[in-house]
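<instruction>
Derive structure tokens from the sequence

<record> Sequence and structure tokens follow
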Amino acid sequence: MPMEVPPSQVQSIAEQSAPAGATLAVLNNGSVAHNLSVEGLATPDLLPDETANLDISSLAPGTYTVICAIVGHKEAGME
């Protein structure tokens, strides 16, 4: 079952964990475009209320930084 991750809540993801082999179900519940990016894996840019799955099964167990890679969003705290 996919783990739900809303990009507008990227700050709260920092303390989340996902099981090995996971796929993240990403929903943009914000009011502008967002994406979710981790270690070179990323969703497409999602408009408000759009969804995408992000397969992170290729990542080894560990700690990763998750960001919104839209220009300026990481700098605005979406990390």
User: Anything to note?
Assistant: The two ends are 24 Å apart (CA to CA). The longest helix spans residues 10-13.
